[in-house]
Amino acid sequence: MGAHPPKRERFDLAGNVNVDPKGISRAVDEYRVTEYGLYLARPTPGRAQFHYVESWVLPALGLRVTDFWFNPGHERDQDFYVDVVSVEVHDDEWVTTDLYLDLSVRTGRSVTVLDTDELLEATTSGLISVRTARDALERTYRTVDALAAHDYDLPRWLASIGMPTRWRRRHPPIG
Questions:
Q1: What span, in angstroms and rounded, lies between the C-alpha atoms of 119 and 137?
Q2: Are strands 93-106 and 110-114 parallel, antiparallel or unpaired?
Q3: CA torsion sign, 149 to 81 to 22 to 56?
Q4: Distance of alpha carbon 132 from its chain centroid, rounded?
Q5: Three-class HEC string of the chain
Q6: FRET pair for 165, CA 20 to 30 Å: which of 30, 113, 156, 173?
Q7: pLDDT tens digit string along 27-48?
Q8: Segment 140-150, tens digit of pLDDT
Q9: Which of 89, 104, 97 shows the shortest CA–CA distance to 129?
Q10: How far apart are the first and last CA of the chain?
Q11: Average pLDDT over the chain, rounded to an integer
Q12: CA–CA separation, 21 vs 24, rounded Å?
């Protein structure tokens, strides 16, 4: 697998659309801006694996936390998927740049770090700087440590640092 440039995604609040890294716009059911982040809820037409997605973009943490609503037969053993990202916040638009590393969180059980190979490949290929890679790794370590300290309960951890999350399903607000 060859190295690929970091993926950028746009959250167009004024247009009520989410623009994926390939430039495809998708209608958003809900955007919610808080003092600590941006919430997104939208259907995912054309996806075999899942039919709906909810995300929180958290600039201070450099994370995007996602709950995928999987279709029958495509379920994964995870409660949340966390992308390590950089975030640009503008009045009516937020932009994330994916920094390759991801975390799969299983509430009350564990967290797995994914795609370290992609980060290293992108760094050695010059697609991101060593400093950016180091920052992404340090952010990942801090997140893993915080999750472990909160029994791998992501909403509980976020609430404990003043970032209570509300979800459309199964994740009651804490705090």
A1: 9
A2: antiparallel
A3: negative
A4: 17
A5: CCCCCCCEEEEECCCCEEECCCCCEEECCEEEECCCCEEEEEECCCCCCEEEEEEEEECCCCEEEEEEEECCCCCCCCCEEEEEEEEEECCCEEEEEEEEEEEEEECCCEEEEECHHHHHHHHHCCCCCHHHHHHHHHHHHHHHHHHHHCCCCHHHHHHHCCCCCCCCCCCCCCC
A6: 113
A7: 999 999 999 999 999 888 777 7
A8: 999 999 999 99
A9: 97
A10: 43
A11: 91
A12: 7
Amino acid at 143: T
Residue type, 100: Y
User: What pLDDT was estimated at residue 53?
Assistant: 86
* Amino acid occupying residue 13: L
For 89-113, what is the mean pLDDT?
96
Q: Which two tokens stand for residue 19?
A: 């623009």
